[in-house]
Design brief:
By secondary structure, the protein is α/β, with parallel strands linked by helices. 30% of the residues lie in helices and 17% in strands. The chain has one domain: Alpha-Beta Barrel (TIM Barrel). Helix 1 packs across helix 9, helix 3 packs parallel to helix 5 and helix 6 crosses helix 7. The longest helix has 14 residues. It is globular.
């Protein structure tokens, strides 16, 4: 599938639930998050059908996300069903890691190859402050379990926020000396209303890079496969790598290769634009595969050239946990 700017779209991010067992302050408020009703969430049969049709039309990489994907019952069997698709898309998952010590081995058995784990502080008190839950140890146990299960590579997602946790960038980067992980730093996106942090707390990618250079010289790494948005480096002498995701500044929209499906069945051509296309009602109208594929193609055609953060963007209704990041 090609969009109007000749970009090849071969990466589908599926949010399988908007529910979450954490309440990260940069993602959602503690209270007042109306969860999508049960009937509005796409069933696994519906999600499988969309994935199958997308893969038949050229999607080569599928990521499950949320909310927290591991809180939805049946996720392991769903992954096994995607692994069995004849086209063998690359399959991966983004998780907060809280339930990973129980799930790492079953996920591996189901055929999941690799995993991304979000973690914003290595300090218990601070982790609790950011996520509003006292769960750092569960995440660390989950990471150990993921390593033991052979999920590889493990990628860590850390969002540095000014005045909150940016002083931990070096400590996170040093994890790459000990572990063969890709430790990525994501620019904070002030994208929805009601968050506890403001755009003044954005910690820009250039600053992140300078902090990393204080730890050791950065050697750029060649990237392979169907790319995510991270720029990858190796700290001299490290076994793992570090990455920077310029989510806001010097954006990577020119290389954008993705489409998103929200838990309630809306196709979202761009993370940072509130334009959505209702796939759920098409799926539930008895449409054949061709019609469903046409909706996918339409949302590819409607992808914007780039995001408009910093211009006329107004934080939208849908929060990150409803989109999946
Ligand atoms: N602005 C913007 N940010 C993105 C986009 N894709 C991912 N991000 C940000 O980068 C974070 C990390 O993405 P992940 O879910 O770990 O996946 P990934 O980096 O695409 O995938 P891999 O590197 O292949 O593992 C997301 O949660 C977002 O915050 C995008 O298309 N636009
Ligand atoms: C929405 S979460 C969903 C998956 C899972 N719950 C997790 O936290 O990994 C996906 C990613 O989005 C990132 N994210 C959420 N809100 C963000 C924001 N305002 N700016 C930058 N990244 C954000 C998180 O750090 C996480 O890595
Ligand atoms: S970032 Fe992930 S773990 Fe944190 S509240 Fe959002 S969905 Fe939940
Ligand atoms: S901001 Fe939108 S257009 Fe840019 S890379 Fe992300 S999803 Fe693609």
């Amino acid at each position: 599938m090609r969009d109007s700017y000749a970009r090849k779209i071969d990466y589908l991010r599926i949010s399988i639930t908007d529910r979450c067992n954490l309440r990260c302050r940069y993602c959602m408020p503690e209270e007042g998050v109306a969860s999508v009703g049960h009937g509005a969430v796409l069933s696994y049969e519906e999600l499988y059908r969309v994935a199958r049709i997308a893969v038949e039309r050229g999607v080569r990489k599928i990521r499950l996300t949320g909310g927290e994907p591991l809180v939805r019952k049946g996720v392991v069997d769903f992954i096994a069903s995607l692994v069995a698709l004849p086209e063998k898309p690359e399959l991966t998952l983004t998780t907060n890691g809280v339930l990973l010590s129980d799930y790492a081995e079953p996920l591996r058995q189901a055929g999941l190859a690799r995993i991304n784990v979000s973690l914003d502080s290595l300090q218990a008190e601070r982790f609790k402050q950011i996520t509003r839950r006292d769960q750092l140890q569960s995440v660390l146990d989950g990471l150990r379990a993921a390593e033991a299960a052979g999920l590889a590579p493990i990628k860590i997602n850390m969002v540095p926020i000014r005045g909150v946790n940016e002083d931990e960038i070096a400590a996170f980067a040093r994890l790459s000396y000990k572990h063969n992980w890709e430790v990525r730093f994501i620019e904070f996106m002030p994208v929805s209303s009601g968050l506890d942090y403001t755009d003044r707390q954005l910690y820009p990618a250039v600053q992140i890079k300078q902090d990393l250079e204080q730890v050791a010289p950065l050697v750029p790494e060649q990237r392979q496969g169907i790319l995510g948005p991270a720029r990858i480096y190796r700290l001299q002498g490290a076994v793992g790598t570090v990455g920077i995701i310029h989510a806001v500044s010097s954006h990577f929209c020119r290389e954008c290769n993705r489409l998103r499906l929200t838990a309630d069945g809306q196709l979202r051509p761009c993370l940072l634009s509130d334009h959505e296309i209702d796939l759920r009602s098409v799926l539930r109208s008895g449409a054949d595969d061709e019609k469903v594929a046409n909706v996918l193609l339409r949302s590819v055609a409607e992808k914007p050239e780039r995001h408009c953060l910093g211009q006329d963007y107004q934080p939208g209704e849908r929060r990150m946990q409803g989109i999946g990041g």
